[in-house]
Design brief:
seven-stranded mixed sheet; two-stranded antiparallel sheet; alpha/beta; 256 residues; disordered N terminus; Rossmann fold
């Protein structure tokens, strides 16, 4: 994906390297990974088996690297070639599938599957279909975790303000009942807190630019985004802060 260099903001195009740089900047200023990893460790500790981890949309593999030592085998789906290069360095033991989730052909039974912050890039009408596809790769007794930002946090209020888009993983729960019997058992929603702190205005606007890169959504001028960042995120000391708490939908596949 490409970070636009004109007066419009939004990561578009095909330059995945720019996307990766923006993502890395966001994660460097956020406490998301540490808190999320602690949450994931609790989930792993409760699993009945740890034979296989499936990470769908693994990106550069930071979370994959954290989870992989707990499992005998790790399989990742990651369509971005620059991200796959990073993933190979970060988690060399992982088996990597280059096709998107809708095209991937896997013969696996995962004890834990992860779909972390991927649904923004999948049409809303295909969320249930995508979830069902992944649940087919989850072993009986296994778990799929679907992570998405809470629509009520400061970050997603900004996204809605500029794009009109709304993402709420809670809407998926009702659709899961229509999936074939034996695929979905108990579901539960957890909240995992997260906070981003930008060191200066330029960095925070770049991160806002990245977060506003919603496919097929209208773009905004840099001036408008900068004004929004100043108005809502300014700490009055040259730094900027916003919450981006996450929803985690835990979906268990029934044991036989």
């Amino acid at each position: 994906m490409e970070l636009r260099k004109d007066a419009q903001v939004g990561i578009t195009g095909t330059d995945d390297d720019a996307y990766r740089v923006a993502l890395d900047t966001f994660l460097a200023g956020s406490d998301e990974k540490g808190i999320t990893h602690a949450y994931l460790r609790q989930v792993v500790d409760r699993l009945p088996a740890r034979r296989l981890l499936l990470d769908v949309g693994a990106a550069q593999g930071t979370t994959t690297r954290y989870l992989a030592p707990y499992f005998e085998r790790t399989v990742c789906i990651e369509p971005s070639e620059p991200m796959r290069r990073e993933l190979a360095r970060t988690c060399p033991q992982a088996e990597v599938v280059a096709q998107p989730v809708g095209e991937a052909r896997l013969d696996v039974q995962a004890d834990l599957a992860l779909l972390s912050h991927v649904l923004y890039y999948i049409p809303r009408t295909r969320w249930a279909e995508t979830t069902a596809r992944i649940m087919e790769w989850v072993a009986p007794g296994g778990v799929l975790l679907v992570l998405l930002q809470s629509p009520d946090n400061a970050c997603m209020r900004m996204v809605h303000h500029f794009t009109g888009r709304h993402f709420d993983v809670r809407e998926l729960v009702g659709e899961l009942a229509a999936l074939r019997p034996g695929l979905v058992g108990h579901t539960e929603l957890d909240v995992v807190p997260a906070r981003y702190r930008g060191r200066n205005l330029e960095e925070t606007v770049m991160v806002a630019d990245f977060l506003l890169s919603v496919p097929d959504a209208p773009s905004a001028t840099r001036e408008a985004v900068e004004a929004y960042v100043r108005r809502h995120f300014d700490n009055d000391d040259g730094t900027y802060t916003f919450r981006h708490d996450q929803h985690v939908l835990r979906i268990e596949r029934p044991a036989p």
